[in-house]
Amino acid sequence: MNPFLTIALVACLMTAFMSFTSIISGDDSEVKFEETTHQFNQIPQGTPVTTKFKFTNNAAKPLILKNVKASCGCTTPDYPKTPIMSGEMGEITVTYNAASMGKFKKSITVSTNIEETPIVLFIEGDVVAK
What is the pLDDT of residue 3? Predict the structure, then answer.
């Protein structure tokens, strides 16, 4: 095999591997959340609880949260409706109504103008009797 072809092939494979590794680790995300899962632990039944998912726009352009949708009506997200400029922080506030007893895991799907794949956030906990 031609040595130049071998070098070119190795360089291409290394580039592909490095790109794949950054995709797997999430290092290439332009919207960085401080946490993507929040654990409420035990919650007294009928006592709503709230958390904030803080994020930073690491993209070179303004971030627009196009849609933020909870997996059920028991969870209510509130999010910025105005663009988040490059380098700025924002937050999504999520409230869970804690009406039903038992363990829960709810998702909040975030669609943006920057990330092709929606970002999924989770809240978890266990609703117990008062």
Answer: 54
Q: How far apart are CA 104 and CA 44, in angstroms?
A: 13
The mean pLDDT of 31-38, rounded to a whole number, is: 97
Could you tell me the end-to-end alpha-carbon distance of the chain, in angstroms, rounded to an integer? 74
Please name the amino acid found at residue 109. T
Total domains in the fold of the chain: 1
pTM of the entire predicted model: 0.77
Q: Say if residue 28's pLDDT is above 80.
A: no
Domain that holds residue 101: 29-128
CA distance 8 to 71: 47
What CATH number corresponds to the domain at position 105?
Answer: 2.60.40.10
Do the domain assignments include residue 24? no
β-pairing verdict for 37-44 and 119-128 = parallel
Q: Is 82 helix (H, G, I), strand (E, B) or coil?
A: coil
- Does an H or E element contain 17, and which? helix 3-25
